[in-house]
Amino acid sequence: MRPTSSTPPSRRGPQAGEFDAPKQERTRQQLERILEEADRLFAERGYRATKLSDIAAAVPCSMSAIYDRFGGKAELLRYMHRRGAEEAVALVDALEPLGDTERGDPGDLRDTLHQALEMGLAIIRRYRGRRRASLERMYDDPELAEIELGIQNGVVEAGRRYLLAYRHQFDHPDPELAASQAMRLLMAMVEQRESTLPAPGGATLSEQQFIAEVERMVLGYLGIAHDSDD
Fold first, then answer.
1. Is 157 helix (H, G, I), strand (E, B) or coil?
2. Is 47 helix (H, G, I), strand (E, B) or coil?
3. Quick check: 144 and 77 in contact, CB under 8 A?
4. Alpha carbons 173 and 151: distance in angstroms, whole number
5. Helical ranges in the chain per DSSP H
6. Alpha helix (H) residue ranges in 127-195
7. For residues 154 and 23, what is the distance between their CA atoms, to the nearest angstrom?
8. Residue 84: alpha-carbon gap to chain centroid
9. With bands split at pLDDT 50, 70 and 90, how would you rate the model's confidence at 133?
10. What confidence score (pLDDT) does residue 189 get?
């Protein structure tokens, strides 16, 4: 007789867009509520302290509505992280220079960087819960870590293309490298700003002060004079 394991097989969980979108409006709304409440509870409590029953009660919905679609909490988080990644990369990829690109004039990076930073902060805030839960969980979940790496690479690549539209303004010997590193700097600063951990040294800046300082750092690295330095 073939031996059986007492441990159920691990479920990968659906990838974003992998299962058919609910056909009924009520079901679509319920799915969005599950994701919203999971995000909120993960942000407030973290991954380990949040139970699927807590999410179901907050929606409200039955436990089977979550289990039937995702299979468990780990699978739900993977789906949320994949979906958030697709949306974040799409938003960054949609950034467009403000100048006349058809005539080869993308404009001035200093005119668009502020808006890009505001958008980055908004993205991190929107997905704060799944970010906190993923950081808590990924060392025990190689698949989640792989998703995170894909997010980082996808956002860097989308942002790199945006920055390279202004390469004529760079004062750097390697514009390609500069654009990639500038994006990594931006991501690190924005992540730290919106982290659930306290700021090092108790440093506190208003949002506008923070954006102004990050602008200075990025423009300085790229060799572009800040407006106030002109």
1. helix
2. coil
3. yes
4. 28
5. 25-45, 52-58, 63-70, 73-93, 113-126, 128-137, 142-164, 175-193, 207-222
6. 128-137, 142-164, 175-193
7. 30
8. 6
9. very high
10. 86
Q: Give me the residue label for tokens 């390609």.
A: 176
Residue type, 171: D
Tell whether the model's pLDDT for residue 213 goes beyond 50. Answer: yes
3-state DSSP assignment of residue 204 = coil
CATH architecture, range 77-229:
Orthogonal Bundle (1.10)
Rounded Cα distance between 34 and 45, Å, is 16
What is the per-residue pLDDT across 6-36, written as a single tens digit (0 to 9) for each?
434 445 555 544 555 566 788 889 999 999 9
Domain boundaries, the chain: 77-229
Residue with tokens 């890009």: 116
What amino acid occupies position 105?
A: D
Q: Which two tokens stand for residue 140?
A: 């025990």
Asked if 110 and 43 count as a contact pair (C-beta separation under 8 A), the reply is no
- Name the phi and psi angles at 63, rounded to 5: -60, -35
Contact 211, 114 (CB under 8 A): yes
The tens digit of pLDDT for each residue in 44-94 reads 999 999 999 999 999 999 999 999 889 999 999 999 988 888 888 888 888
The CA distances from residue 209 to 54, 102, 149, 226, in Å, are: 38, 34, 30, 14
